[in-house]
Amino acid sequence: MERKRIIQSLLFLLQLNVLIALKDDPCTTAKNLPNFELRLKAFKIDLARGDRPICDRYFIKEPGEWFRTVDGNEMVNNRTTFFECGTQYSIYMQGHVPSSLNRVVNRTACVIPSCTTKYNIQLKKCSNFTVYYLPRPSSCDQAYCFGFGENGIAPNITTDKPTVKYELVKSAGKTAAELSEQKLAFKCHFTPVVDGTNIIYYKVFWYVNDHTSTIFASQAVPKERLPETYLRGETGLDSIKLNIEISCKVRLYYHPKGPPGPSSEASEKFFAGIKPLKRAYEISRDNSTVIEFKLTVPFGCMYANHNDPYPLPCKHTLSLTTPDYLKCSQGIYAVDMCGKLIESRKWNETQTISIKHKNDNNYRTIQTFEVHTETKVRINGEPFWDGVELPTVFINVIEGTNKWKNKKCEAVSDPHMTSFANRHYESQEPGTYTLYRNKDPVGNINEIQMKVTPCNYVKYGNYEHMNQCTCGIAARASSDVYVIDRCPGTVPFYFGFKSCVEDILNVMKKANDEHDYEIHFPSGTSLDVRLNSIFDKTHFTSERWTLELQIHPSIADEGRSQGLCGSVEKDELIDPNNVNLTHDEYLFTQSWRVADADNMFKMTLERLQSFPKTRKARDLCICEKPSLSSGTIKNTLTCTNAKGRISCDKDKMKPVQKDVCYERHNRRKRSVKHSFTFTPKIVIEPKLKRSKRAISANITNMTKAQAKTWCENYMNSSPAFLACQDIPNTNSTRAIEICVMDILTTNSTVFAAAPRESMKAGCLKEIARNDTLLNVTKNGEKIADKILSIACPGECSGHGVCTKGVCQCNDNFGGGDCSIDINEPPEVYAVNYETGGLCDKLFCKEAIVDGDLFLDRSGLTCKMQRFEMTMNGTSWDLETSHVPGSHNTLSDIRCKFPRSHSKRSTLSSIGFISGYKIAVSNNNKNFSEAHAVYILDSTCQDTLNVSGQLRFALKPGFCFIHGSCVPDGVQKKCYECDIRQNKFEWTYRETEKGCTKEENSHLWVIGVVLAVLLLILIGLVFFYILKKKHRVVQDSYGMPNPHGQASKYSK
After folding, report:
1. Where is the VWFD domain (predicted)?
2. What are phi and psi of 281, to 5 degrees?
3. Rounded distance, CA 1038 to CA 120, Å?
4. Residues 161/265, Cβ–Cβ less than 8 Å
5. DSSP state letters, 678-720
6. Cα three-residue angle 76-78-82, rounded to 5 degrees
7. Where does 478-564 show beta strands of DSSP type E?
8. Are 133 and 69 in contact, with CB atoms under 8 Å apart?
C-alpha cells in the first residue's frame, strides 16, 4: 500500500505540471467558428433570392473568443466588398499570419467599406492550424471573412425546393464483436440538376428549428455520394435531442472547393420526435383519462447477425415525470405503470398512457395540472432519442358531486359517536369495531378498525360505572396497514406500520406536537388521531390512553362508506348485511363488532402482509425523476410515497417514517448469507409509571344544570373555542352536550377537555378543507387568521403561551400542549427491537429506539456510549457521544451513529463486534436507562445462543482482519487470508515471488523520491521555457493589447 501511494503521488505531480503548462493555451481550447464554409471571399450572398447574411454577434460571446481555422483557410487580409464572405459587412485583417509557432501577435480587423469600425484581434500559429481571438462584433450583419476558395466560376443555378425524409440505415459494428444496428438518418431529398458540361457537386446544409445556423454542413459531393450528406448521429444529431424541426438547403458547386452557387429554397420544417396529440384534457374529480402520443420517426434496433434482413425487435420508453405536488394532496398520477413501452415495430401507432386525478378531501379541487413526459432509450440506443422532453400536457379537473362535503365522523371520549350524516349516538361496549370501510368497484378496500377498552371506573354511593374509551386504531389501504395500539395489555405499545407492501397509506405527525397524527388513504379520505391519557387512581395502577378520532370523507366515499360512520349521503344506520338498524343503535354498533379472525390487532404480521394488493384502477405512481433505469419500467410500483401524496403544509406536518416496515420486508427477501442464526427476543416489562400529562379523575357531584353551566364556562374560557363558533360545520353545542354527559356519567371532569379539543380540531380542519373561509372577516379581522393564531392544543395546559398556533412552553415543560415535565426522562424499552438489538452494518445505518413519551423538541438527545466485545461476550466501554435524536412518533425515535463510528474501519486487536449503549433525554440533561445495540457484518459474522446468552461467531470460509470480512484465499500483495494459519491477521506469503520483508528493503523508496525530484525539476524548466514562448508580441500593424499590456513585435 505504501509503494502504491507513492507512485500515485508521482503520477499526480507529473499530471499537475502538464496541466499548468497547457492551462489556457488557445491551441488546445479554441473551437470552430460556425458556418466556416460560407465565409469564403468568393462566396457572395443575394438578398433577393432569400440568402440570410451571417451575423457573428449570434456566435461569439462577449468580449470575444478563440477560434481555429479549418482546411488551412486563414483570415482574409485584403479589402473585401459588400455581400462577400456570406455576409453584408465582411471583416478582413490588416497584416499577415505569423510564420513562427507559439507566438501570440496583435492585428487589426476592419469592417468594410472604410475601416471606420475596427477590432483588435490576436493570432497564434499552432502546429498545423492557426487560432484567432475574435471580439464580438458591435452590430449585425458583420462577420469575419476566411479563405478565398478555388478559382473558378460559381454555378448560377440551384435545385428545386428540397424535402426532409427519414430512413433507417444499417450500420456495421465498429469491431467484429459488436452487432450491427439500424440508425436513424435524415435525407435532404431533391431532383439532381442536369448539366451536360460540368460535373455538379452538391453541398447540403442542415438546420434545426430555424435557418440561422447549421447543425451540419456536408462536403460538396457528386450525386453518387449523396448519402454522405445525410444528417445522422455522428454528423450532428448526437449533440442534440429530438423533438426538433429539421430543414435543409442545397448549394451547387463546379469544384468541391470552388465558389458556391445560390442557395436553394429552404425545405419545409419537419418535426422529428414524439408529441402529444392533444395538449389539454378535461376529467372529473377522482377520475382518469388516456393521454395519446405519436412518433413521427422510427428508431433502430440491433441485428442478431450482420447478414440478417431484419433487426431484432426492441423498445423505447416514454416515461412520466410529473411535477412533485408536495405542497398539495392532489395531483395527476400514472395508472399501472410510470410510462409506456413503445415497440419498434409499432412505432407509428398511437401510444397511450393512462393517468388519474389523485383526489383529496378539500372542498375545491385544483383546476389545472401539468403532466411532463420524456423518453428513455434502450441500452446502446442512439443518444438523441434519450431524455427528449415532450411538450407539457395540461389536465383540467372539474368538480364532481358535493354530497361528501361538510361531513365528518367522530368518536370522542368514551366514545360518543357522530356519523357522516351528523347522527349522534353512543358506542360504549368494549371490543374491536369497524369504524369505517370503503370498497371501490374493483374491490380495493380502505378500512379503519377501532379498539375500545375500559378506561375509567366510577363509584359514587350506590352508583358505579366503567367508562369505555378508544385506545387503538388499525388503518388499512389494501395491503398497507398502520396501527396505533396503546391499550392495556399491549406491551410494548405499538405505534407504526405493520405492512407497507405497496406504500400507498401515509401517516403524518403534526410538527412540534407528538400527540397529533393524520392518516391519509389513497382515495383522499383522511383520519385525524389525537392522543390523550387519563389516570383513574381509584381503580387502575397506571394511566389509560384515549384516542380522539375524526374521519374526513372524500368524493370516493359517496355510495360506498360503511361501518359505525354510516353513509355519507343518508341519515341511516346500516349493518354489514345492508339491514337498516336506525331504530336500534345498540344492535347497529354490535353488528360492526369485528370477529377475531378479521381483527387486525390480533393478526400476525404474515397475515397482514398477505392482504390483496391494490387492483389496477388505483395503482398510482408519482413517477419522479429519475423514474426509470436502463430504459425499463418496473412492474412493481413503489413510488407512491409520502412525498407528494399527502394534504399537508411542510412546515406543519412531518411524514412518519416507514424504515422499520421497509426493513422488515427486506429481511424476508434477503439471502441466507445475509442473516444471523440467532435473533434474541427482547422481553419488555410493562411500566406502571404514570405519565406527567395524564389527566386525573377529579370526583365531583353535579346536577345536569350545574354540569351544563360548568361545561359552558370551561369551553368558553378557550379563545379558540369561541372563535370557532363562527366557522360553519363546527358544533359547539355538541361539544357542551358531550361534556355534560361525561360529567353525569363519571361524576368527574376527566373527559371535559376531549370534546373541546375535538371541536377545535374540526374547526381547523374545516379551514384547511374550505379555502373560501380564509377570506371571511368579522369586525374587520379575518376569522381564519385569528383562529390559526390562537388555536393551541390543550390551551398549553397552563404551562405555556400560545403564539401563532404553537405552544411556547415554560421552562421544564414540553410536548405539543406543554403538559409533560421534561425533567422526567422518556421510557426506553429497547433499541432495534424487531431485530433483537442487532444491527447489520450492511443495511443498518442508525439505531431505532422504542419507548414512550419522546418529545419533538430541540433537546431530544441520544447519549451513545460505544463498546467493543469479544466472541465470548467480554465487553469494554469506549467513548461517549451525544447526538440529536430524530423524532418519529411518541413511541420511537432514530439515533444516528456518531461520525467516529462511520469513519472507523478497524476494531481493536481483540474486539470482534462493536455497539452502543443508548440512553435518551428530552432535555439533554436527564437520561433514561441505557439499552444496547450490537453492530455486526452479516457477510462473515454470526450470532449464537449459548445457554440463553447472546454470543458471536465467525462464519466458515472467512477471516476477520482489522474490522473487515475477508474471504479465505483473498490475496493482498504479499499477504493473504489463510483460515488455516490465522483467521484474524494477514498471513505472510514468504514463497511468493518478489516478496521480501519490507523492513529489510526500503532502498527502492529512496530511489523513487530522487526520481520525483528530478521530474519536478524538468517540469519546472519546461514550464519556464513554454511561458517565455507565450509572450505577446506586436508588429507595426498592431494595436495595443486588448488586455492592457503592450509588447514588442517580432517577425
Report:
1. 407-600
2. -130, 155
3. 8
4. yes
5. --PPPP-PPP-PPPTTPEE--B----HHHHHHHHHHHHHT-HH
6. 85
7. 480-485, 494-500, 506-510, 516-520, 526-535, 544-552, 561-562
8. no
Q: Read off the pTM.
A: 0.72
DSSP alpha helices (H): ranges in 770-872?
Answer: 783-790
List, as own/partner pairs, every contact residues 979-987 make where C-beta atoms lie below 8 angstroms and the sequence separation is at least 24, other chains included.
983/954, 983/958, 983/959, 984/959, 984/960, 985/959, 985/961, 986/961
- Joined grid coordinates for residue 703: 346536577
Average pLDDT over residues 726-753: 91
CA dist 1037 → 119, 172, 1012 (Å):
13, 54, 46
Neighbours of 648 (CB within 10 A): 22
Which three cell numbers mark 563? 361501518
**Helix axes of 704-716 and 753-769: crossing angle, nearest 10 degrees:** 50
d(CA 558, CA 401) in angstroms, rounded, equals 9
> What confidence tens digit (pLDDT) does each residue in 13-27 have?
555 554 554 567 899
The residue among 587, 645, 601, 330 whose CA lies nearest residue 447 is: 601
Neighbours of 570 (CB within 10 A): 15
Q: Which of 414, 415, 411, 416 is nearest to 448 (CA)?
A: 411
- How many whole angstroms separate alpha carbon 695 and alpha carbon 708? 21
Please, which residues bridge with residue 1032 across strands?
Answer: 104
Cα–Cα distances (Å) from 336 to 395, 632, 687, in that order, read 18, 14, 47
Q: Kind and range of the H or E element at 435?
A: strand 431-439
pLDDT digits (tens, 9 = 90+) for 127-180: 878 999 999 999 989 999 987 655 567 788 899 999 999 999 998 887 777 888
Report the alpha-carbon distance of residue 227 to residue 750 in Å, rounded.
90
12-26, 679-693, 936-950: least confident range: 12-26
Give 3-state DSSP helix, strand, coil % of the chain, rounded to 5: 20, 35, 45
Rounded Cα distance between 321 and 373, Å, is 6
C-beta separation of 135 from 121 below 8 A: yes
CB-CB contact of 240 with 221 (8 Å)? no
- Length of the chain equals 1051
Cα 919 to Cα 645, 824, 874, distances in angstroms: 35, 13, 21
Extract the C-alpha cell encoding 36. 466556416
The pLDDT score that the predictor gives to residue 472 is 96
Which cell is 149 given? 476558395
Maximum Cα–Cα distance across the chain:
128
3-state secondary structure (DSSP) of residue 397: strand
| DSSP secondary structure, 922-940, as one string | SSSSS----EEEEEE-TTT
- Nearest residue to 730 (alpha-carbon basis) of 364, 402, 422: 422
Q: How many CA atoms lie within 13 A of 351 on its CB side?
A: 24
Express each pLDDT in 218-258 by its tens digit.
989 999 999 999 999 999 899 899 999 999 999 898 888 77
Cα gap 839→743, rounded to integer Å: 50
CB contact at 8 A, 108 and 122: no
| Percent residues over pLDDT 70 in the chain | 83
C-alpha cell belonging to residue 849:
429506539
Residue range 723-740: mean pLDDT, rounded? 93
Which of 112-126, 312-326, 345-359, 754-768 comes out lowest in average pLDDT? 312-326
Torsion of CA 307, 310, 314, 318, to 10 degrees: 130
User: In a 3-state reduction of DSSP, which class is residue 1022?
Assistant: helix
| pLDDT higher than threshold 50 for residue 1044 | no
- Region of 794 please: left (phi>0), alpha (psi -120 to 50) or beta: left
Find all residues with CB under 8 Å of 1050, minimum gap 6, and list them: 100, 103, 1033, 1035
